[in-house]
Specification:
CATH architecture: 3-Layer(aba) Sandwich
Shape: globular
Number of helices: 7
Strand content: 5-15%
Radius of gyration: 17 Å
Distance between the termini: 10 Å
Number of domains: 1
Order of helices and strands: EHEHEHEHEHEHHE
CATH class: Alpha Beta
Helix content: 40-55%
CATH topology: Rossmann fold
Number of strands: 7
Length: about 250
Amino acid sequence: MAQIPETFAPTDDLLQDKIILVTGATGGFGKAISLACARHGATVILLARNLRLAEALYDEIEKAGYPKPAIYPMNLEGAAEHDYQELAQNIEKEFGRLDGLIHCAALLGAPTPFEHSDTETWYKVHQVNLHAPYLLTRSVIPLLKKSKRCSLVFMIDDKKTAYWDAYSVSKQAVAAMAQLIAAEFEGSPHHVNCINPGKTKTALQLRAFPAASDNDLLPAPEDHTAMFLYLMSDELQENGETFSPLNK
């Protein structure tokens, strides 16, 4: 796995004038990343299912004096192809381009032995974890290409052992998709990478391991924001890599 340079020190204007779309923007990672990107000068498009939480995050960013964000309510569980096309059209109309896309939205589902897996859950997990990133990415690639230098980031996981069911399959499929797109962008100013943050204190992690003895000792999403800032910055050189924390 790749790691960001130890000398990387994000300046206040690191992402100045960049337009960055974050999915799952009100979740553990999504909120931390949205705030970090805004703090360093980016205009963040907050894509989230819960409008109330998105509005609260909007107010927090605006109150801090960061660039004014945008809210785009969308429920990935029910979104269809035309919804993503409409999103791309709205972004083009409002901003003209997209400099970065960070896929944070994820659904755990119900980890279970494969023979007992539930069809409805299987479809729902793949809809959010795989089909949504596919449809969204494909829809906004023309906007990313309008940027002089863009970055696309997928969050993946290494839960590949027994009982992780649809969650494991969907995350491995996302990693394969990211590699495919990265290979197609090789040699261009457009970068595609993955981040595997490892165990982090998020609602998804606590739901997966509710009784784990080390839950209170896990790093918070805020502890990993430097990785995301590096991957959104003009300092990024890597393409087709999977980044992890230095201590993972």
